[in-house]
Amino acid sequence: MRHELYRRPVFAVAPMIDWTDRHCRVFHRVLSRRALLYTEMIVADAVLRGDRDRLLGFDAVEHPVALQLGGSDPAKLAEAARIGQDFGYDEINLNVGCPSDRVQSGTFGACLMRTPELVGECLAAMRSAVDVPVTVKCRLGVDEQDPEEALDRLADTAVAAGVVAIWVHARKAWLQGLSPKENREIPPLDYDRVHRLKERLPDVFVGLNGGLKTVAEAMPHLESLNGVMMGRGAYQTPGELALVDASLAGRTPEASDWSAIIDAMCDYAARHVAGGGKLHHVTRHMVGLFAGLPGARRWRQMLSEAGTRSDATADLIRHAFAEVDTGSPERAAA
């Protein structure tokens, strides 16, 4: 039976290492109430041995939020999944797609595309340890693998293990010869392959990731797939996320209430600074918010430069916003 999270079309924000922290997720949640948010990939060993509050802590406003784990040891992943559930995460996801040097040295991430049976063991162990949904995010294959065979084998073992959803980055990963950055850009996208997987597994939730830069570009895929996931587009032009809720509801998105968004982020940033944090922990995620609007360059400049000062406060966000012409009536009257 499909879990409540996955009974309707899902728009998710892809996790990115060293970027998708709790401040980023709060910002994305302010922009969209319905988007499914993910943590960056956290290695199971780190969850078991590290500072769990620092690694796993999140603000209640972030729900629904999923914990993405990395690893290849079923027992460790099961324990890490249980800990994640105890922290309150709505979903536990296994990363079988990251091509970074770190995952290659640890033989997990995209490397696991070569060992689908081990992936199945990991997912089954995680599934037995928690009550929340267990999902998987993978690639079409790695290196010389045939994407038809590799993706089908991975998907079949995942379904047999009891996963609720399969998220597919519609590119192969070249572990030999390409950097992690190149692996996000050079291997050609093959959306049709993901659609063929859905045709073969009509009763399984299949979501698409890779190369989607705008909500308008992503939404047509929901006519035949169950979910779409936006990565760099959500980070570089986060204002796109303000279009998600209306688009999922089948409505034409209206002009964003930028003032309300700024108020919410100022309140959050003020609490963070009052608790001993730095303003740039929050504002570094906001620099692309007004991309394409008059004043966006000044906005970026103020947040990037003044926002890093040790004495910077949330008032800087309001001052920077005053430099932006959003074209809204309330801004025109300001």
Automatic annotation (TrEMBL):
The record marks N95, K181, R184, R297, R300 as: Interacts with tRNA. Pfam families: Dus. The keyword RNA-binding applies. FMN binds at Q68, K137, H169, N209, G210, G211, G231, R232. PROSITE patterns: UPF0034 (PS01136). Keywords: Flavoprotein, FMN, NADP, Nucleotide-binding, Oxidoreductase, RNA-binding, tRNA processing, tRNA-binding. The active site is at C98 (proton donor). This is tRNA-dihydrouridine(20/20a) synthase. Its EC number is 1.3.1.91. Its cofactor is FMN. Catalyzes the synthesis of 5,6-dihydrouridine (D), a modified base found in the D-loop of most tRNAs, via the reduction of the C5-C6 double bond in target uridines. Specifically modifies U20 and U20a in tRNAs. It is an enzyme of class 1 (oxidoreductase). It comes from Plantimonas leprariae. CDD domains: DUS_like_FMN (cd02801). Belongs to the Dus family. DusA subfamily. Belongs to the dus family. GO terms for molecular function: flavin adenine dinucleotide binding; FMN binding; tRNA binding; tRNA-dihydrouridine20 synthase activity. It catalyses: 5,6-dihydrouridine(20) in tRNA + NADP(+) = uridine(20) in tRNA + NADPH + H(+); 5,6-dihydrouridine(20a) in tRNA + NADP(+) = uridine(20a) in tRNA + NADPH + H(+); 5,6-dihydrouridine(20) in tRNA + NAD(+) = uridine(20) in tRNA + NADH + H(+); 5,6-dihydrouridine(20a) in tRNA + NAD(+) = uridine(20a) in tRNA + NADH + H(+). InterPro entries: Aldolase_TIM, DUS-like_FMN-bd, DUS_fam, DusA, tRNA_hU_synthase_CS. The gene is dusA. Residues 13-316 form the DUS-like FMN-binding domain.
